[in-house]
Amino acid sequence: MGTLTSENRSEAMENRIESAKRIAYRFRQNPLSLAGLAIILGLVFIAVFAPYIARHPQDAGYMGEPAVDFANRFAEPSWEHPFGTDQAGRDILSRVIFGTRYSLVLGVFVLTFAIGIGVPVGLVAGYVGGALGTLLMRITDVFLSVPPLVLALAVAVPLQPSLRNAMIAIAIVWWPWYARLVYGEVVSVREEQFVEASRGIGASRIRIMFREILPNVLAPITVKFSLDMGYAILIGAGLGFLGLGAQPPTPEWGTMISEGRVYLPAQWWYSTFPGLAIFIAVLGFNLLGDGLRDVFDVEVK
Amino acid sequence: MGFKSYVLRRILSGIPVFIGLSMLIFFLARVLPGDPARLALGPRASDEAVQSLRDQMGLNDPVVVQYLNYMAGLFQGDMGISLTTNRNVAADLVYFFPATFELITVGMTIAVLFGVPLGIIAGQNKDRFEDNAGRLFAFFGVSMPAFWVAILLQLLFAFYMGWLPATGRIATAPPRITGLMLVDSLIATDFAAFRSALAHLVLPAFTLALAPMADIARMTRSSFIEEFNKDYVHALETSGIPAKLIAYKYVLKSSFAATLTIIALDYGFLIGSAFLIEIVFAWPGMARYGVTAILENDINAIVGVTLVVGLVYIIANMVVDIMYGYFDPRVRYGGDE
């Protein structure tokens, strides 16, 4: 293959821009995906500027331990405390606002780790194949034979309960989903002509895997990433709820729901609002992921 | 290949996955930092006490020996002693599993009974109001944390309205035969107990059903639409067969295979959600036993519960594959995947 002429190159560039434009257009046509994107941008904004948005940042442990104000404990939702206060008189809205940080960090950490392990495993198993490939996929199957929440619970136990260890536990059980996704895609493009051609001119295996095959897998990974952000947040909150995640008084959503459950039904607001936050966050990622799935036209489970 | 040998091969292929799973769980529980004996006895226990418990639990043997001992015991129904109940974990699981089984089975039944019709209605009215409403519902169903929905329903229907019991499984239990309250109360012809069991099931089962209901509706809708656009449907239409008949007699049957997969996959996931739901509703099942074991660092119980969950999951997937092979004979020749 000779070098590309500048004409060829600009043509390829134009094609790429053209297809990006088409994708952006199709994305804009779907109000639900736009709503999802808006929710996620809102969450990121809230997470970044939490100290300025929350009226009582010290109640969420900003710059020190969470404050206590027993005179104000279990205040009903009011103008001053729109989500009410908890057993230590802390403003629940401020705590929910800070909780955004924990959930987003958890999701990003878990998925970065899962993709970092799962993608290379899937690439190697799919492209190199052989005994190594079979072994890798069998290990993957084993991980996939238990619901992620249950396996994450089993992994979280020997580690001491903390937010960091919850993230590690979820990450350990998450990579196989990406390995299987990538494996399936690799097997389907392995024998395509462009891969064949690349092999023919003597490209190395690494180059073929990462430069020729990987780009074809990016769309489904992106879609799965978005859908999984929501799912990882749900599981993280579930671990918090069971007492295996962030420990009180950390304002993590699942942990707060678990704390508030003790005071039902009188203090109904305590568990209700952190749960609403989880719902909205997960909904945002699901809406976006679903929209991306339509735009890229890929099937991901 | 005949159907029988296909079924046999499918069942056999589940065995290595189960063995792999048992290794994974076992080694995770042993290899990760943290000493099960120390965790079980607490930080204040003396070193001698920890050592003697380690000896008793066989923790001083090489991990491989421990694993082989465990597996040898497993085949004789011995899963080690639970540190919280002081009974064999196998006995505990036999005792607690039926409650969870009853809960997730009723939950899945609700999910199918509502999800399939919802999906069909959405599919028949593609892009119209019914379809959009259904889509929104599906998004909500998969986005709400189940344990939060559980709390809200409990607040509303148990605490405020007082229509349904907030926690527990039954008022007075009938004599235990199967461990399934609905079945046992019928065997005892105790209809008050049956009603009570049913009333206790409504909230937790409905909570569990929500997410799979959404999933099933979505899958039914898309496979329904796909099937409806096939040539044979047009052929039926042009020969004057009413649309309703086509929908229910032909399309539904052929599009059901895809829905079946989702049902089985979700059945496995329901056990996962049960871990959270059983806590909220104080449901005396295996998941609650598992959570207690987790909080008490009861390692044998944790390994046992995880294994059973995995086994249910593996069997669910096996059943799907077999049904697939039954509905679509081509699958039987499709090799491994």
UniProtKB/TrEMBL annotation, chain B:
Q: What range(s) does the ABC transmembrane type-1 domain occupy?
A: 97-324
Q: Which GO terms describe its cellular component?
A: plasma membrane
Taxonomic path: Archaea, Methanobacteriati, Methanobacteriota, Stenosarchaea group, Halobacteria
The family this protein is said to belong to: Belongs to the binding-protein-dependent transport system permease family.
Q: According to Swiss-Prot or TrEMBL, what is its membrane topology?
A: Multi-pass membrane protein
Q: Could you tell me which PROSITE patterns the record lists for this protein?
A: ABC_TM1
Question: What keywords are assigned to this protein?
Answer: Cell membrane, Membrane, Transmembrane, Transmembrane helix, Transport
This one is known as: ABC transporter permease
Q: What is its main location?
A: membrane
Magnesium listed as a keyword: no
**For this UniProt entry, which segments traverse the membrane?**
12-32, 103-124, 136-160, 191-211, 256-281, 301-327
The compartments listed are: Cell membrane
Which GO annotations describe the biological process of this protein?
transmembrane transport
